[in-house]
Design a protein that fits this description.
By secondary structure, the chain is mostly helical. The longest helix is centred in the first third of the chain and has 32 residues. It comes from Phascolomyces articulosus.
């Protein structure tokens, strides 16, 4: 989604900004006084209608300002702040498609193509306007579908770096992960599972305290015969029964490369 940047000479002077802010604040205060007056006079429908009109205008203006600030964050490379403002655009103006497109484009840049498509589909369901010109629904949908097609093409061109990278690079990556995270990686697909299972760096260090979920799983028992040969260090702290089971596993599955073993009883009190 693109938006033209105003020329440098279009910048509003500081004094003018202060005057605008003061006038806006005064206008809101006056409208609030009028609303309270309508309530006191028993003109409840008028109070509701007038307040609603002003709230909608303020929300729309807020969404416009959020879009501008989001663009400023983008220029600075601050993608998290950019995303936060884009999400707020949807919150403040849920019927305007621009917020959905902004969020989708950020997700797409982050590589989250499926999430980008999901937010655009949600936008098609909720949004009724594209911008201040109130373009018709067909033109709005065409704009969104164009963005969706771009994201789908990116999805088709997506590269699985774990599959494409050399074993040395893969080893460096998995060497930074704990065993529970490695376990999650094995569920990505069959190819990842085969790569992880034969990657020595992924299994060199097992922390029994932090990796309890993996160690006590059935998968661990099925993997130990093939990966135990890669393990060089084990730190474990557990209840007596679990500690006994852990030590039995170490003895049973022949951790032939094991260089360091630290075992202690876990105090749960």
């Amino acid at each position: 989604m693109s938006k033209e940047t105003p020329p440098a000479d279009a910048t509003v002077p500081a004094a003018t900004k202060e005057m605008i802010e003061s006038s806006l604040s005064h206008l809101i205060d006056q409208l609030n006084v009028n609303t309270i007056h309508d309530i006191n006079e028993g003109h409840y429908n008028a109070a509701v209608n007038n307040s609603t009109k002003m709230i909608n205008r303020l929300l729309k203006s807020t969404a416009i300002l959020l879009e501008s600030r989001s663009m400023a964050w983008k220029k600075q490379g601050k993608i998290e702040q950019e995303l936060q403002d884009a999400l707020l655009m949807i919150e403040h103006s849920p019927t305007n498609i621009r917020g959905y497109i902004a969020v989708a484009e950020i997700y797409s840049v982050q590589g989250k193509q499926e999430q980008a498509l999901t937010i655009l589909k949600k936008g098609l369901q909720r949004a009724t306007t594209l911008d201040d010109n109130e373009r018709d629904i067909d033109q709005q949908n065409g704009y969104v579908y164009e963005t969706m097609n771009t994201i789908k093409k990116r999805l088709e061109r997506r590269i699985d770096f774990i599959v494409q990278a050399s074993l040395d690079v893969v080893g460096i990556i998995f060497g930074y992960l704990n065993i529970d995270t490695v376990n999650i990686c094995m569920d990505v697909n069959h190819t990842w599972r085969a790569i992880v299972q034969t990657c020595p760096e992924a299994w060199r260090y097992m922390n029994r305290v932090g990796d309890k979920l993996f160690w006590t799983s059935q998968r661990a028992l099925s993997l130990f015969p093939s990966v135990s040969q890669y393990v060089r260090k084990i730190d474990t702290s557990a209840e007596p029964e679990e500690l006994t089971m852990c030590l039995t596993d170490i003895e049973t599955y022949k951790f032939s490369q094991l260089q360091s073993l630290s075992a202690s009883l876990h105090n749960s009190y």
